[in-house]
Design brief:
It is built from 4 helices and no strands. By secondary structure, it is an all-alpha fold.
Length: 116
């Protein structure tokens, strides 16, 4: 009888240990999942803050684009428009020697190297 009782005691202890291990494993998984969710939440908050700053910048740019002076400046810069009576002076940009060398094809550069 004592051996029978000892056997049940060992089985009960092993079963209890198994339940404890499974419970701890589940708790560990929940904690790990909670930590990951907290990281995702912080990243989402940072992204939201970044998007809010970007939105404010776009709204400021939009307000600037609604002013007549800005519209006129952009029309002059991008579309080369002018008011009646204005004189437009265009100063061409002279390429430097390095810019001129870059614009040559590889065949032209080889030909010039041989002609030196």
């Amino acid at each position: 009888m004592a051996e029978h009782r000892r056997r049940y005691s060992i089985l009960f202890t092993l079963g209890l240990l198994l339940v404890i291990v499974v419970t701890l494993w589940g708790a560990f998984a929940l904690v790990r999942s909670g930590i990951e969710k907290a990281r995702e939440y912080r990243a989402a908050r940072e992204r939201l803050q970044s998007l809010r700053h970007e939105k404010e910048a776009f709204e400021a740019e939009l307000r600037a684009l609604e002013r007549p002076e800005t519209i006129e400046r952009i029309a002059k810069e991008r579309l080369n428009l002018k008011r009646a009576g204005e004189i437009v002076v265009v100063v061409p940009q002279v390429p430097t020697s390095s810019e001129a060398a870059i614009s040559l094809s590889w065949w032209e550069r080889i030909r010039r190297w041989f002609l030196k």
